[in-house]
């Protein structure tokens, strides 16, 4: 690593990235390439001799960017956002520059200590109860994704109950969630060795706005106990992936507490909104949870990956995940004076991810972050109003944050074609490259999702996307 060479090349790369952002609106937001396109464009083996950075950048421009779906485009309204920002980018850059591997405190004390401090800062912004802070028995840790966060808490919860009932009872353990819970729940149960039939996804419908019914949960738990099973885990969601439903944490927390279960709250997307006083009520009841997760890399201006997980009992995680090989032993760890984050996660190695979250919090400050969230929610409200004013369309689930679920209504005599019509509309709109939306199914109904949350999105982008949707709807209805 020659410092002057780094300076020269990194300047070129920053220029390239700045130009990318300058021109981002000119790309089709959803990549329009066909599967296998890159195989045709790149050689079959690596070069023997070094090539120039300029040659690589030329290839990026002509061969890679056409195959990129532009998540940072202001016309991106699909899935949930995955934010980038100048602060987040600079933090990533610094982390890549220092490139340490902070699995134990000793391997880079600043990495561990900054992570502890910054997750306490963020916990305070979210007004999490004090027992999630590092000053008590709990604390926060940065995981790569919400899926990993859920997996590590399921492992901790599983081992906690098995210590009580014996390892042989693993086949009797039951985990619950609603049928709107992210698929990472089923994956985590699979990895944790929970019997597939004992990962119970309880049915939701329009009557609870797709939130988990506490009555249904109580009934399921009573039934399972009666047949000799052992309920041990509940995942509640604040802001479900399909429609941003919010599970009733207070009532669910009471049930889990009285049954000695671990209660995890997944607020991967909507957690960010809870830094605004007017949205904080969505996590009322978090006092009863054992763990809480939000993805700073979704809607909090922090470049991927950065998923914040807090637990009330850090020892439960450590008991499940700690290893202590001779080659990692050191005085600080042996004396129990430090946090070794390797014992709070699946891998050993870990990056200096707290740097980017620290930069985001310092360079923007709470007030700007709140305005950022509020602006997206206003834009989603605006889109919802546009839909409501157009009789051919319908909003199909209540909007709570920055996601609008909607559909195009079929002609009266073709109601059974509604799903096909909306699927056609999605593909017609996305293939223009002018916007990118996604879909879900709610109560058997194909539903379009319009999620505002890309940092560059302005009102004009929402209006333009709406215009494309209207035009495509007109064309489709003529042929239907
Ligand atoms: N939970 C919810 C509510 C989500 O919406 C998502 C993804 O969108 C996830 C979990 C999974 O996120 P990750 O990719 O960080 O694992």
Summarize the topology.
Layout: H1 3-22, H2 53-64, H3 86-98, H4 109-125, E1 139-143, H5 146-165, E2 173-178, H6 184-191, E3 199-202, H7 214-226, E4 230-237, H8 249-258, E5 262-266, E6 291-295, H9 296-299, E7 307-311, H10 314-321, H11 331-334, H12 354-388, E8 393-397, E9 403-408, H13 418-430, E10 438-442, E11 445-451, H14 459-479
Parallel strand pairs: 2-3, 2-4, 4-5, 5-6
Antiparallel strand pairs: 1-7, 6-7, 8-9, 9-11, 10-11
Helix pairs in contact: 3-12, 4-12, 5-6, 5-10, 12-14, 13-14
Written description of the protein model:
The chain is of the alpha/beta class. It is built from 14 helices and eleven strands. It has helices at residues 3-22, 53-64, 86-98, 109-125, 146-165, 184-191, 214-226, 249-258, 296-299, 314-321, 331-334, 354-388, 418-430, 459-479; strands at 139-143, 173-178, 199-202, 230-237, 262-266, 291-295, 307-311, 393-397, 403-408, 438-442, 445-451. It has a seven-stranded mixed sheet, with helices on both faces. Strands 8-9-11-10 form a four-stranded antiparallel sheet. The radius of gyration is 24 Å and the shape is globular. The model has no long low-confidence stretch (mean pLDDT 97). The structure holds pyridoxal-5'-phosphate.
């Amino acid at each position: 690593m020659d410092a002057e060479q780094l300076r020269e090349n990194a300047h070129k790369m920053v220029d390239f990235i700045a130009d990318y952002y300058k021109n981002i609106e000119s790309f089709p937001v959803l990549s329009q390439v066909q599967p296998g396109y890159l195989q045709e464009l790149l050689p079959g083996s690596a070069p023997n001799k070094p090539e120039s950075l300029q040659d690589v950048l030329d290839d990026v421009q002509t061969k890679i960017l056409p195959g990129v779906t532009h998540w940072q485009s202001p016309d991106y309204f699909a899935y949930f956002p995955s934010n980038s920002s100048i602060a987040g980018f600079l933090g990533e850059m610094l982390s890549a520059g220092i490139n340490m591997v902070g699995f134990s405190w000793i391997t880079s004390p600043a990495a561990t200590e900054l992570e502890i401090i910054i997750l306490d800062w963020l916990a305070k912004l979210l007004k999490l109860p004090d027992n999630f802070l590092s000053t008590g028995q709990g604390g926060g840790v940065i995981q790569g994704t919400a899926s990993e966060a859920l997996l590590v808490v399921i492992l901790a919860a599983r081992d906690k109950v098995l210590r009580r009932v014996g390892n042989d009872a693993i086949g009797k353990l039951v985990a619950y969630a609603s049928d709107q819970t992210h698929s990472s729940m089923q994956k985590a149960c699979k990895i944790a060795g929970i019997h597939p039939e004992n990962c119970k996804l309880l049915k939701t419908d329009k009557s609870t706005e797709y939130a988990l019914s506490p009555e249904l949960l109580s009934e399921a738990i009573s039934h399972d106990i009666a047949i000799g099973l052992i309920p041990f885990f509940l995942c509640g969601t604040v802001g479900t992936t399909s429609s941003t439903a919010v599970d009733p944490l207070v009532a669910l927390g009471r049930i889990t507490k009285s049954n000695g279960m671990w209660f995890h709250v997944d607020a991967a997307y909507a957690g960010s909104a809870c830094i605004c006083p007017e949205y904080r009520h969505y996590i009322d009841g978090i006092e009863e949870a054992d763990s809480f997760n939000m993805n700073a890399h979704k809607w909090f201006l922090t470049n991927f990956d950065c998923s914040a997980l807090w637990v009330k009992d850090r020892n439960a995680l450590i008991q499940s995940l700690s290893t202590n090989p001779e080659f990692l032993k050191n005085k600080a760890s042996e004396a129990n004076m430090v946090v070794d984050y390797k014992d709070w996660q699946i891998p050993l190695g870990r990056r200096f991810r707290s740097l980017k979250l620290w930069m985001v919090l310092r360079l923007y400050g709470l007030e700007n972050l709140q305005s950022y969230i509020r602006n997206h929610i206003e834009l989603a409200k605006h889109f919802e109003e546009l839909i409501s004013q157009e009789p051919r369309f319908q909003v199909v689930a209540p909007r709570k944050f920055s996601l609008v679920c909607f559909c195009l209504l079929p002609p009266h005599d073709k109601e059974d074609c509604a799903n096909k019509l909306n699927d056609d509309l999605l593909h017609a709109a996305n293939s223009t490259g002018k916007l990118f939306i996604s879909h879900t199914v709610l109560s058997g109904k194909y539903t379009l999702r319009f999620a505002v949350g890309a940092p560059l999105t302005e009102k004009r982008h929402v209006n333009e996307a709406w215009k494309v949707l209207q035009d495509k709807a007109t064309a489709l209805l003529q042929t239907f």
